[in-house]
Amino acid sequence: MTDPNLPNDDAANAAPTGEPVVSKPYIMPDDPEEGSVEALAREAAEARDKMLRTLAEMENLRKRTSREVADARTYGITGFARDILDIADSLQRALDAVPAEAKAAADPGLKALIDGVELTERSLLNTLEKNGVKKFEPSGEKFDPNFQQAMYEVPDSSVPSGTVVQVVQAGYMIGERVLRPALVAVSKGGAKASPSADITG
């Protein structure tokens, strides 16, 4: 068989011996159908749109992953830190159990024990702080249910109503989150706290 698209010389060489060489016109590919340019443009636009969406999704995924890694670094020790707070509370209770007069009049052995407990508590709090856990005692501040839990009210007209007058148990923050709210006693019966008192520098 002769390939009509080959030049005549090639066609003569390709034809078996004894067959006449017939020259045929070059066959052009079909003209593009009407509207196929629009279809190609539409496909290209869809592909571009899909690519842009994929790039946006990848960027969002990258940002979300970075945020999750940062959160894991900051808040990964939350459970452990919460368990450690019991130890910090026990040390605080041990120190609070010794009256000031007893501390002043303590013999050298008891004084060394008290100093050791105080040193251990400070060391524990410093270690927690190095890992993003900070203690807070909101005494004298306006009660904030986001950071404090009211245990009871104390009638006290000398301070604005809703002021923290006693911290029953210190609160702790980890990063920007509350690890444990402070347990507090709140005043009642005084004047209402002015809104400007909430604004702190």
Descriptors for this entry?
disordered C terminus, three-stranded antiparallel β-sheet, elongated, three-stranded mixed β-sheet, 5 helices, 3 domains, alpha+beta, Nucleotide Exchange Factor Grpe, Chain A, domain 2
Compact overview of the structure:
By secondary structure, this protein is of the alpha+beta class.
Structure description:
By secondary structure, the chain is an alpha+beta fold. The protein has three domains: 32-75; 77-131; 132-194, Nucleotide Exchange Factor Grpe, Chain A, domain 2. It has five helices and six strands. The chain has helices spanning 8-14, 36-75, 78-96, 100-104, 108-130, and strands at residues 133-136, 148-155, 164-169, 171-174, 177-180, 182-188. The protein has a three-stranded antiparallel sheet. A three-stranded mixed sheet has the order 2-6-3, with no helix packed on it. Helix 3 runs antiparallel to helix 5. The chain is elongated. The chain starts with 7 loop residues before the first helix and ends in a 13-residue tail after the last strand.
- Give me the number of helical elements: 5
Mean pLDDT: 82
Supply the CATH class of the largest domain.
Mainly Beta
CATH architecture of the largest domain: Roll
Low-confidence stretches: 196-201
Number of strands: 6
The ordered string of helix (H) and strand (E) elements is HHHHHEEEEEE
**Inertia-based shape:** elongated
Give the strand line-up of the largest sheet: 1-4-5
Proportion in helices: 40-55%
Number of domains: 3
**Major sheet details:** 3 strands, antiparallel
Return Rg in Å: 41 Å
Question: Which superfamily, in CATH terms, is the homologous superfamily of the largest domain?
Answer: Head domain of nucleotide exchange factor GrpE
By secondary-structure content and strand pairing, the structural class works out as: alpha+beta
Q: Span between N and C termini?
A: 95 Å
